[in-house]
Amino acid sequence: MKKAILLAAALSFSACIHTIEYGRQFDASKVPSLEKGRTSKQEVLTMFGAPESSSLNGDGILTLNYAYIKTTGRIKLASFIPLVGPVVGGTASSNAQKTLTVSLKDGVVTNFVYTQDGVPDAPTKKASQ
Known about the structure:
Blueprint (H helix, E strand, L loop, with lengths): L1 H11 L2 E9 L17 H8 L4 E4 L4 E16 L8 H4 L2 E15 L2 E9 L2 E2 L3 H4 L2
Antiparallel strand pairs: 1-3, 2-3, 3-4, 4-5, 5-6
């Protein structure tokens, strides 16, 4: 009976899940609203909020960087069973990330790049016109 209770408890906690997040969520659906030569810095800040980081180069180009990364990992508790753990246990993870880099000169957008999961997304096409 005691073994059955322990087995039921072990099965009910079949996985250990952890999530790590970096940055702040931003509304990627607003990226197509960015227009080179027209959108102001204030409009960018209104659309996306404060950037994760920013830098100003020697040519007066201000770069605003937005990033959000979420990693979720799962470890099966069976991994910790002596001898059979490596065979019946295991791990799984998933990653999601999005970044937006906006360049401004004299307070107006000159370029922007949006990527999702490390790959430039459709809104980037507008930036490269």
